[in-house]
């Protein structure tokens, strides 16, 4: 007879139903120690029948914390170092983990979604971390379902896709930076403003583009051009080549990240186009890169360190390490430097 | 009576002397589970009396591998993202760890040496990693002694200080890049070449400066100026200001990293100095940054991904995971782009 307590099922119930020891169930959930495939199968079937969820398992295992948080960066090494916004997020995360003796387990995987999923499965199977930080929310993101199945504490930096109830951290006044960028350009007389966005599979890509369009619409303007790019320098150079070849070329361009903006600005100048005299350029994120270059980059600042800190505190609170997860995240804001201004050159466009 | 076996002490001897279970000793060494301070003290005293060393403990615990490697980056967040060479090292390390199911535990600490040492102590005390990768070998480096005391597998990326027997990985033909840079400048007629180095506490800082001086000496030249800087943009801007204010200003400058070179180039252009027409600029590392800017940066390429891979393989071999630690690391080489060339402007110097 299967012993089955009333109310919430326990690990003992699962062990009894599977006909194995509690230690064996623990091993299966833990991913540690050797366990035969049939035993593993029996345990999982029993857990499923009793509706003993992985999340309950996580609670049961709470005493065996790893004191590590995982983060998976899905980018090529070159793209990571060209656009080091991950570094700032990681610094923010670390600044909260470190005082509590938590470590950050980092995985850099290829661009394929399957590589990221495999990394999460391994982190869970081998019970390497107590939680994970996700970035770059995707349209139709499947990672949250996977992580729920794996019973993994999760926090997203960014806006969840639709109503996914994953805990997420983001700044308030999320649209303020891009709105200010458009206001700044319009105030300098720009009417033909282009947008070079990131890959369309990101939630923030669509959101920011909509904010851009709405901000222009408030001045009865529409985007002169919208180019979907890929965050790479080559993509930005290509986009600028196309924009400047147009007879009705834009007088200002917003880019979705700083490295595209810098690469785009350089491409324009190599073509003999003065920045900002012929073309104003605005980036996104405010990475140190933008201050190194000449002209210095006008950009939309994101509080990446604050976002990293907030994400870490959400996980630490859900692990019972701290009571209050609150962190002030500064809203995005426009940082005006040298790459934007009024048109000062002879108007290069011949309207038809 | 205390049971004490002949020969090497075992964990059982320590447990017996301390009057605790073997599991309790394991907990203390492991840093896992809860253990009272007095018990911990008793165990450590017993271990000390029996000369049961941390290194013996490491051997005893070898079956309990953490399957994680640690890396401590001692830089401020801003400096890390302005000069993302760590990102490329990490990518190289990860590419070797990942297929074997090893993770990389990353710690970003402040600039003080004590913060880095505290991080190593914690990694060892809490038994978080099976080994650590060190970078930026220091003059009179004390980290290796500490890590030996902690019984930690260690590998250094770079040249050890003096004859420290720490395992290290570096490229062959280490001087080839800077030599080629000097040859390239001299071939374009430059005779007044300045050097802006990194902090003097690094082994590579002194080495590269000596190579630079020897390469110039082969042409009966000496450095026009040598400025010790700090890898920051502000440091580079300051250095360029001083160099260009000199009546005998240099016609070419080598910088110790790419972000200083880009910031220095921008500072020169802001002062109305043409690059390369008035001033040739060379960086070091070949980060993606150098290709984003205009003019694109001539720089000494380091195989950072290869160095990261090699370091990971040395640790994996010492952990018995692989047999052959060999990785081809490409020697440093000069990558000629747009920031160097012959002087084309009116000679701005008035020799006295």
From TrEMBL, chains A, B:
Query: What InterPro entries does the annotation carry?
Result: HTH_LacI (IPR000843), LacI/GalR-like_sensor (IPR046335), Lambda_DNA-bd_dom_sf (IPR010982), Peripla_BP_I (IPR028082)
What GO MF terms are annotated?
DNA-binding transcription factor activity; transcription cis-regulatory region binding
Which UniProt keywords are listed?
A: DNA-binding, Transcription, Transcription regulation
| CDD domains (alphabetical) | HTH_LacI, PBP1_LacI_sugar_binding-like
Q: Identify the Pfam families for this entry.
A: LacI (PF00356), Peripla_BP_3 (PF13377)
Coiled coil segments of this chain: none
Q: Which SUPFAM superfamilies match?
A: lambda repressor-like DNA-binding domains, Periplasmic binding protein-like I
Stretches assigned to the HTH lacI-type domain: 9-63
Which PANTHER family does this one have? Answer: ALANINE RACEMASE (PTHR30146:SF155), LACI-RELATED TRANSCRIPTIONAL REPRESSOR (PTHR30146)
Protein's recorded name: DNA-binding LacI/PurR family transcriptional regulator
Q: Which organism is it from?
A: Saccharothrix ecbatanensis
């Amino acid at each position: 007879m299967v012993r089955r307590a009333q109310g919430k099922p326990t690990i003992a119930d699962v062990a009894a139903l599977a006909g194995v020891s509690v230690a064996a169930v623990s091993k299966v959930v833990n991913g540690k120690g050797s366990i035969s495939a049939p035993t593993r199968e029996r345990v999982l079937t029993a857990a499923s029948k009793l509706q003993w969820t992985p999340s309950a398992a996580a609670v049961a295992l709470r005493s065996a914390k790893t004191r590590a948080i995982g983060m998976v960066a899905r980018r090529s090494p070159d793209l990571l170092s060209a656009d080091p916004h991950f570094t700032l997020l990681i610094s923010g995360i670390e600044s909260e983990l470190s005082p509590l003796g938590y470590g950050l387990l980092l995985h850099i995987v290829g661009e394929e979604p399957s590589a990221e999923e495999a990394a999460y499965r391994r982190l869970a199977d081998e019970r390497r971390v107590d939680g994970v930080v996700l970035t770059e929310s995707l349209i139709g993101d499947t990672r949250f379902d996977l992580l729920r199945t794996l019973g993994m504490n999760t926090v997203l930096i960014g806006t969840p896709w639709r109503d996914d109830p994953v805990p997420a951290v983001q700044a308030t006044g999320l649209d303020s930076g891009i709105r200010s960028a458009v206001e700044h350009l319009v105030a300098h007389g720009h009417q033909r403003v282009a947008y070079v966005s990131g890959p369309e599979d990101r939630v923030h890509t669509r959101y920011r583009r909509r904010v851009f369009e709405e901000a222009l619409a408030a001045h009865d303007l529409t985007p002169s051009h919208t180019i979907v790019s890929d965050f790479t320098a080559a993509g930005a150079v290509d986009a600028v080549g196309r924009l400047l070849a147009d007879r009705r070329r834009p007088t200002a361009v917003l880019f979705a990240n700083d490295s595209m903006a810098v690469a785009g600005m350089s491409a324009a100048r190599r073509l003999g186009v003065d920045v900002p005299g012929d073309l104003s350029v605005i980036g996104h994120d405010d990475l140190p890169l933008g201050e190194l270059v000449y002209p210095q980059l006008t950009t939309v600042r994101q509080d990446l360190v604050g976002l990293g800190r907030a994400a870490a505190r959400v996980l630490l609170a859900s692990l019972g390490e701290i009571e209050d997860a609150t962190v002030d995240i500064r809203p995005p804001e426009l940082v005006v430097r040298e790459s934007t201004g009024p048109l000062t050159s002879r108007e290069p466009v011949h309207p038809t």
